[in-house]
Design brief:
It is built from seven helices and 48 strands. The chain is mainly beta. The chain folds into four domains: 189 residues, no CATH class; 194 residues, no CATH class; 135 residues, Immunoglobulin-like (Sandwich); 127 residues, Immunoglobulin-like (Sandwich), CATH 2.60.40. The strands form twelve sheets. Strands 18, 19, 22, 23, 24, 27 and 28 form a seven-stranded mixed beta sheet that branches.
């Protein structure tokens, strides 16, 4: 889903200023044909990491307003950027990572992060994917930092198979007949990117942290090193030592197992919110890293003596230690009362994937505990004895089995949107359709409360989205990983690159923002939204976030609504359009949605003046003559400013002017009617000998000329009024 905010003027930072605007960071422009790899693009998923270019700066921008292009200098402050499900460009990812934070509105895990440029000629692109849709936009409708055609007049974009648009470089655009076409598909190059989904990234994170445990190439490698994730000097998951054994010939004991830990990188799909993971109840998934190492007691020897007769002889008492075997595994992961199944390295799920249908095992909505249990078993051989030239010698071998069992638990809360429903009522009018969205059921990230992501409304060719107030910031949980061995400890920085040794651990934190409406802008028209009615239903308070995350809106309460409504204005004047609505929750699952359509009808308004009685009869009816009763009609040129139509659709009023103008403003969608009618107006002219005030006529014309509907009526009336005044001046007294 790609959304574009509606607006009058479009402001875009030029890409050539990236180095100056972002504190010395140079963002390379894509070079057609060069598949450049970009380091650190995954830093967009670490909102709590330092942003070297954060702050405010003055930058040069292109400003497009009413068809005019000009350069302006603007002060731009850091704002968080939303990550959509389509792919951003590698260069854009670097810019965002260095000057801002990035958030998502949902938790599906299929958002993508680019790490390398990828190029195809347009001809290759069409061969590979079939003839793809192209769009050619004049420069003022596009971002000048993106690719333009060879003449610099258009941007060309090709539809990606995944749904988004990829820029085309070096295109020659010509008018062929009545259509713009790219005439050099063998040379024009489509810029796309190799990317990784966030869910694949998290799988990679856990697998890299299992390199010395579950995925170790040998038992020896597993025993020798423990990779311990650290966050600014603190262990992310507390380690323990255990499996103690006594030492031969010397006092004390020795822990065979060192630096053992087990933990949860994340709960998928989920968010860490107010001290617990919040996830949906249909299927709960988690990634469990763990590690340990085995520390063998050092060989030992000491000198002693024995006495034989009157002589004393030397001896040596010795002890050697050897690990015969060791086994370690996460033996149990539970979510509530469900024993989870392992479906991959470090990956566990409540889904019963061993059944023929991989049936889900829903976890009841509510609070639960998720627990992982790690068990490490060590088989140790102790070989010890006495050596001497004269004293008695002996040796023994003893085998011991020692173990460590370690558990870690985290609180989780499961929710769903089963009890939430959305009712969308569209009032179809020409050019300004009214859309009212109503929610029934609990909203939020509280106990059992559902979280909707967006409501999509399609009216003809217009699409709008009512977006939820949730912002999910992905934050890093590690700064380094310590590789601990018998000989010492080394630190490896947590990586934000695609192929880093230890990718930074990530999980989501939630921040409330605002409900808003975004319109998808077609190339050939503009759409505006005006909010006209909101009905609040509770609110969500600010939630604790890392201090480095920019979330200014989080400082305030976030209102929730029973109803959110307004007018979707556009340049078309079509009625009778098709309407389709849908809604999804933050897990990407559908929310029960109902739609209603009320189509406004065109009324007929007439004004007939009776010169004999000095009254005007105002009639409001449907096109087939059906009366429209109970409606207010505003009147100019009468003794009262407003009248109400009776059961016959008629209202009679005394007049005080030869020209009577009547105006029905149309039905307000907020009022209850069986049928809704559009705005209309009419005029009546007296034929009696009443002196016409020219100023009054001009005043009416001034109002009427602004209304396209009565433009022809104005022309006729204007000509008539001129002749009427001339006739009145020539009439004898």
């Amino acid at each position: 889903m790609r959304l574009t905010a509606a607006g009058v003027a479009l402001l875009v930072v030029t890409s050539t200023l990236a180095g100056a605007a972002f504190g010395g960071l140079t963002i390379p422009d894509p070079e057609p044909g060069v598949e450049r790899t970009y380091d650190d693009t995954f830093r967009v998923l670490a909102s709590n990491d330092p942003d070297p270019a954060r702050g405010s700066s003055t930058v040069r921008l292109y400003e497009y307003d009413s068809g005019t292009i000009r350069d302006v200098n603007r002060t731009v402050s850091t704002q968080p950027v939303q990550l959509w499900e389509d792919s951003i460009r590698p260069g854009d990812a670097l810019v965002i990572a260095n000057e801002s934070d990035m958030y998502q509105s949902g938790l599906t895990g299929y958002y993508t992060i680019p790490y390398r440029d990828q190029w195809h000629t347009l001809e290759e692109w069409n061969t590979k994917w079939g003839q793809r849709e192209l769009r050619i936009l004049p420069l003022y409708d596009a971002d000048p930092s993106r690719a333009t055609d060879t003449d610099g007049e258009y941007t060309v974009e090709a539809r990606n198979p995944n749904g988004w648009w990829d820029p085309v470089y070096g295109a020659e655009v010509e008018l062929v007949g009545s259509d713009l076409e790219v005439t050099n598909p063998e040379d024009a190059m489509v810029h796309t990117a190799e990317y990784q989904t966030i869910i694949d990234r998290k799988i990679e994170i856990v697998e890299r942290h299992l390199r010395y445990s579950e995925l170790a190439p040998s038992e020896a490698a597993a025993r020798s090193t423990a990779a311990v994730p650290m966050d600014n000097g603190s262990e992310v998951f507390s380690t323990v030592d255990g499996a103690s054994t006594s030492l031969v010939w010397r006092g004390g004991s020795h822990d065979l197992v060192r630096d053992a830990y087990v933990g949860f990188i994340d709960v998928l799909p989920g968010v860490w919110y107010r001290g617990r993971y919040v996830t949906q109840n249909v299927q709960v998934n988690t990634h469990v890293p763990w590690d340990y190492r085995v520390d063998v007691p050092s060989d030992y020897s000491e000198s002693g003596s024995c006495t034989i007769g009157n002589n004393t002889y030397s001896l040596t008492r010795w002890a050697d230690y050897q690990v015969l075997d060791s086994e370690a595994a996460v033996v149990n992961v539970t979510a509530g009362n469900i024993s989870m199944q392992q479906w991959g390295p470090g990956a566990w799920t409540t889904l019963n994937y061993t059944s023929p249908l991989s049936e889900p095992r829903p976890l009841p909505v509510g609070s639960h505990t998720m627990t992982a249990e790690l068990q490490v078993d060590v088989e140790l051989e102790k070989h010890y004895g006495v050596s001497s030239a004269r004293c008695s010698e002996w040796d023994r071998i003893r085998t011991e089995n020692r173990s460590v069992t370690l558990t870690r638990s985290v609180p989780i809360e499961t929710i769903n949107s089963d009890d939430l429903s959305v009712d969308v009522h569209v009032y179809d009018r020409p050019g300004d359709d009214v859309v009212s969205v109503e929610w029934t059921g609990r909203q939020g990230l509280a106990a059992g409360a559902a979280s909707w992501e967006y409501v999509e409304v399609q009216i003809g060719e217009k699409t709008m989205y009512v977006t939820a107030p949730w912002r999910f910031f992905s934050v890093s949980r590690t700064t380094v990983v310590e590789e601990r061995t018998e000989s010492g400890t080394s630190e490896i920085a947590a990586s934000h690159s695609y192929d880093g040794r230890y990718p930074a651990m990530l999980r989501y934190r939630m921040s409330p923002a605002n409900v808003s409406v975004i319109a998808d802008q077609p190339a050939d028209r503009h759409i505006w939204w005006e909010t006209t009615r909101v009905t609040e239903n509770g609110s969500v308070a600010a939630t604790p976030l890392p201090a480095t995350v920019v979330a200014t809106e989080n400082a305030n309460r976030t209102p929730l609504y029973d109803q959110y409504a307004g007018t979707l204005k556009s340049t078309d004047v079509v009625t009778g359009e098709s309407v389709a609505v849908s809604a999804v929750d933050i897990w990407g699952l559908p929310v029960t949605t109902d739609q209603r359509i009320t189509r406004y009808e065109e009324p007929v308004l007439n004004v007939a003046i009776d010169d004999g009685t000095g009254t005007a009869e105002i009639t409001l009816q449907e096109a087939d003559g059906t009366p429209i009763s109970g409606r207010e009609v505003y009147v100019d040129g009468a003794t009262v400013p407003v009248v109400v139509t009776d059961a016959s659709g008629v209202a009679t009023v005394d007049i005080d002017s030869p020209i009577v103008q009547a105006r029905f403003d149309g039905d307000d969608w907020r009022d209850s009617h069986s049928t809704y009618y559009l705005r209309t107006q009419a005029v009546g002219v007296s034929s009696a000998s009443i002196v016409v005030d020219a100023i009054e006529v001009v005043g009416y014309l001034n109002e009427a000329i602004s209304n396209v509907v009565i433009f022809v009526e104005w022309l006729v009336l204007g000509i008539f009024a001129v002749f009427w005044m001339r006739y009145m001046r020539r009439r004898p007294a």
